[in-house]
């Protein structure tokens, strides 16, 4: 008898990437100016009243829909082939995670043909797709371009009070690999950060947790979304434009020790941050074969000095951190 290959066998590593992010905001006009004039990306107001941001051929990479959350509400994950999608869907079924298929207007609003959705960590909707809708009109951007392709949109960082469970979620379902870890202190609290890659991008996901008593000082589901600019000039010019506009710069230009990315952080109209960076390490096939996670002290080699951390902001973060101790964080717990 001829042996058959199980199409669901294998790994998702290198076959999945961050596809899009959906946020809810009542400040779409402010977002349009922030993104178009400041970051320098392409902006479109859509027929359904949303603001769509483009940085490459995908019709929609960041979607701002009208709503009160001022927060990220959904994250889209692109599977690079149908077999990869079926593998992930099968894993979700095996772990009894409820998945729903979505098409029609809701899929169109995401810039995809159709998608499958389930509730991910911190109750953010995770949406799986294979085929994005491509933009018909040429990009109109101040930036020269962004690095996407098979590595996806960029990365996001989130705080969590359940880092072990969340790490297991990404490693088990997405075949994420730990690139490295960092320890740092912020306002007297020790933070432990774990950086995970799911393709050649050094990390698509970063988790931050307080050491000891787990607290979450953030109101928003993510701390920041990273976009990788094509040139250093794109970063420095966006920094100059955003400062001139009066946008709150969270951290000035600096460099991280692990992925070596040069970047700055700016607060969006919704409160979470955008990190605009250039030239991070890429873990290509040659590097992948011998990559070993490293541990670093301090989130920055140089720079990244806070520009907008007032006493009120510090007090607010501490208050939210203490309040988080009384609220259980939603996690996706997998069978042992």
Descriptive report:
- With 336 residues, the protein is α+β, with helices and mostly antiparallel strands.
- The protein has seven helices and 18 strands.
- The protein starts with 15 loop residues before the first strand and ends in a 12-residue tail after the last helix.
- The chain is 22% helix and 32% strand.
- It has two domains: 16-129, Roll (2,3-Dihydroxybiphenyl 1,2-Dioxygenase, domain 1); 149-324, 2,3-Dihydroxybiphenyl 1,2-Dioxygenase, domain 1, CATH 3.10.180.
- The model is unreliable at 1-5 (pLDDT under 50).
- α1 packs across α5 (232-245).
- The chain has helices at 28-39, 82-94, 105-110, 163-174, 232-245, 285-288, 311-324; strands at 16-25, 42-45, 51-54, 62-66, 71-79, 100-102, 115-119, 125-129, 154-159, 177-186, 189-197, 205-210, 224-229, 249-255, 262-267, 273-278, 294-297, 302-303.
- β7 and β8 form a beta hairpin.
- It has a ten-stranded mixed beta sheet, covered by helices on one side. The chain has an eight-stranded mixed beta sheet with strand order 2-3-4-1-5-8-7-6.
């Amino acid at each position: 008898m001829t042996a058959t290959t199980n199409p669901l066998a294998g790994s998702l590593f290198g076959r999945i990437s961050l596809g899009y992010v959906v946020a809810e905001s009542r400040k779409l006009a402010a977002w349009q100016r922030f993104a178009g004039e400041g970051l320098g990306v392409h902006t479109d107001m859509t027929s359904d009243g949303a603001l769509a941001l483009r940085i490459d051929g995908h019709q929609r990479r960041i979607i701002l829909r009208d709503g009160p959350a001022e927060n990220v509400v959904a994250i889209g994950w692109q599977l690079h082939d149908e077999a990869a999608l079926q593998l992930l869907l099968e894993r979700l079924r095996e772990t009894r995670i409820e998945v729903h298929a979505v098409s029609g207007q809701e899929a169109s609003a995401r810039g995809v043909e159709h998608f499958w959705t389930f509730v991910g960590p911190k109750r953010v909707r995770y949406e799986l797709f294979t085929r994005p809708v491509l933009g018909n009109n040429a990009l109109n951007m101040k930036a020269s371009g962004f690095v996407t392709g098979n590595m996806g949109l960029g990365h996001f960082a989130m705080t969590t009070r359940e880092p072990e469970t969340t790490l297991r979620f990404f490693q088990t379902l997405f075949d994420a690999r730990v690139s490295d870890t960092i320890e740092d202190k912020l306002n007297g609290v020790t933070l432990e950060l774990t950086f995970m890659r799911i393709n050649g991008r050094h990390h698509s996901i970063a988790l931050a947790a307080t050491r000891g008593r787990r607290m979450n000082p953030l109101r928003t589901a993510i701390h920041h979304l990273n976009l990788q600019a094509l040139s250093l000039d794109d970063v420095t010019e966006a920094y100059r434009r955003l400062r001139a506009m009066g946008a709150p710069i969270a951290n000035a230009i600096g460099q991280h020790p692990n992925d070596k990315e040069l970047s700055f952080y700016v607060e969006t109209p919704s409160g979470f941050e955008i990190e605009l960076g250039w030239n991070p390490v890429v873990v290509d096939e040659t590097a992948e074969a011998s990559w070993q996670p490293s541990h670093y002290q301090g989130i920055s080699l140089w720079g990244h000095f806070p520009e907008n951390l007032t006493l009120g902001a510090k007090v607010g973060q501490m208050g939210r951190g203490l309040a988080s101790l009384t609220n259980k964080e939603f996690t996706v717990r997998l069978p042992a």
